[in-house]
Design goal:
There is one protein chain. The protein is α/β, with parallel strands linked by helices. It has 2 domains: 198 residues, Enolpyruvate transferase domain (UDP-n-acetylglucosamine1-carboxyvinyl-transferase, Chain, Alpha-beta prism), CATH 3.65.10; 199 residues, Alpha-beta prism (UDP-n-acetylglucosamine1-carboxyvinyl-transferase, Chain), CATH 3.65.10.10. It contains 14 helices and 23 strands. The two termini are 23 Å apart. The structure holds uridine-diphosphate-2(N-acetylglucosaminyl) butyric acid. Uridine-diphosphate-2(N-acetylglucosaminyl) butyric acid (EPU) binds next to helix 1, helix 5, helix 6 and helix 12. It catalyses: phosphoenolpyruvate + UDP-N-acetyl-alpha-D-glucosamine = UDP-N-acetyl-3-O-(1-carboxyvinyl)-alpha-D-glucosamine + phosphate.
Length: 420
């Protein structure tokens, strides 16, 4: 791509990656056809569909229409394909539903982005409290229980998104009441609660840090629309501010980006609510801001690389602190190659202003780092090449096409087209 253009125009945000993958896993709880709408056209959805097919489910996808119909048989297989599971972290979300329905689940330790150690102890301890016996056997997580899971009170050590989701889905079919305290409060979890409730689950406290679930004996399949992707919306908002552009983000939910938009306004953005979305415009060089990531409603870790890229082109010094993952700063090396002045120390990074970024060849190491490097490339003098862009395909549908429509000078080399 060649740097120097402002992003101007309109972009539509699809359903959230980090919701739809869990909604797909939740379909395992109800025999029959679950239909999900606003499904993003991203690689991870294809992989998750294959995971479900491997368990005996049907999965028919209308990619252009953003719909997937998942057909769950009366008896699902309890063993997930290890190679597929290792490709996406979200595949661990089948653990709770499988053990709840089958009394057994065998799921290889999942993969995903190289952003930290990403333990599963909170998932395992929670399922144990619900009466399952959970072990790791030769790299495979095995959970078993004889009869139904039993409701229990569970206090999470950390409001883990994935653990909250697994325990919510397991608790939905457990006998009696499950209480999850210190639960994650991300909008994607409220979306999962909405799906489960429509399926017949009894859940109190959706969107809060205490979830109370009265287990039921069975759930039914439904039609559900995925919540819009707040991280994709936030990425466009940061891109608009960085390039001094003007972007209307349709389906963007400003209420899911409270602290993010407040920070961007502090950096000089003008944010205006419009019908079914919001608009972000800016003029001139952004002012620097300090950012601390935290579980929702704190500043999302999934916008950390994008905000570091923003700081690299801002005036003033900025201090960014990452509190969720332990290796999210590996991408700073690539940003440095574009001329950014960064210094990392533990879970902090100090970003100092530079007169300009300059084009270089850089490597996307995960989905958000990839998006951030593309945004930085839009601001770099000369040509920037971002390699390994299959990472971006994991979370951003039609990223290059959207950027082109917003006026960016960017093209995708045929060799980098990922097979989705
Ligand atoms: N953790 C543990 N033990 C556990 C679970 C988590 O120590 O049993 C730690 C992790 O190592 C990590 C922290 O807790 O340091 C947060 O992990 P969490 O479980 O909340 O995250 P996740 O479920 O693995 C999801 C998203 C991530 C997003 C985080 C935080 C999906 C598929 N992934 O991961 O999304 O960053 O929540 O919001 O939903 C992305 O989309 O780029 C992405 C990485």
């Amino acid at each position: 791509m060649t740097g120097g253009t402002r992003l101007v125009g309109e972009v539509a945000v699809p359903g959230a990656k980090n919701s739809v993958l869990k909604l797909m896993a939740a379909s395992l709880l109800a025999p029959g056809r679950t239909t999900l709408d606003a499904v993003p056209d991203i690689l991870d959805v294809s992989v998750m569909a294959d995971v479900l097919r491997g368990l005996g489910a049907g999965a028919e996808r209308d990619r252009a229409g953003g719909r997937i119909v998942i057909d769950i048989p009366e008896v699902v297989d309890a063993t997930a394909d290890a190679e597929l599971v290792r490709r996406i972290r979200a595949s661990v979300a089948i653990l709770g539903p499988l053990v709840a329905r089958r009394g057994e689940a065998r799921v290889a330790l999942p993969g995903g982005d190289a952003i930290g150690s990403r333990a599963l102890d909170i998932h395992m301890n929670g399922l144990t409290k619900l009466g399952a016996v959970v072990d790791v056997e030769a790299g495979v997580l095995v959970a078993r229980c004889s009869g139904r899971l039993q409701g229990a009170s569970i206090w999470l050590d950390f409001p883990s998104v994935g653990a909250t989701e697994n325990l919510l889905m397991a608790g939905a079919l457990a006998k009696g009441t499950t209480v999850i305290d210190n639960a994650a409060q991300e909008p994607e979890i409220a979306d999962l609660c909405a799906l489960l409730t429509a399926m017949g689950a009894r859940i109190d406290g959706a969107g809060t840090s205490t979830l109370v679930i009265e287990g039921v004996e069975g759930l039914r399949p439904v039609l559900h629309r995925t919540v819009p992707d707040r991280i994709v919306a936030g990425t466009w908002a940061i891109g608009a501010l960085m390039t001094g552009g003007d972007v209307t983000i349709r389906h963007g939910r400003a209420e899911h980006l409270g602290i993010v938009l407040e920070k961007l306004v502090g950096a000089g953005a003008v944010v205006e609510l419009v019908e079914d979305g919001f608009r972000v415009s800016a003029d001139g060089r952004p002012r620097s801001i300090d950012v601390v990531t935290l579980p929702y409603p704190g500043f999302p870790t999934d916008l950390l690389p994008q905000v570091i890229a923003l700081e690299a082109v801002s005036e003033g010094i900025s201090l960014i602190t990452e509190n969720v993952f332990d290796s999210r700063f590996v991408f700073c090396r690539e940003l440095h190659a574009l001329g950014a002045d960064l210094r990392t120390d533990g879970h902090h990074v100090v970003v100092r202003p530079t007169p300009r970024l300059t084009g270089a060849s850089v490597l996307a190491s995960d989905v958000r780092a990839g998006a951030a490097l593309v945004l930085a490339g839009l601001m770099a003098e000369g040509t920037t090449v971002v390699r390994d862009v299959h990472h971006i395909d994991r979370g951003y549908a039609h990223f290059v096409e959207n950027l082109t429509a917003l006026g960016a000078e960017i093209r995708r080399e045929p060799s980098s087209v990922a097979a989705a």
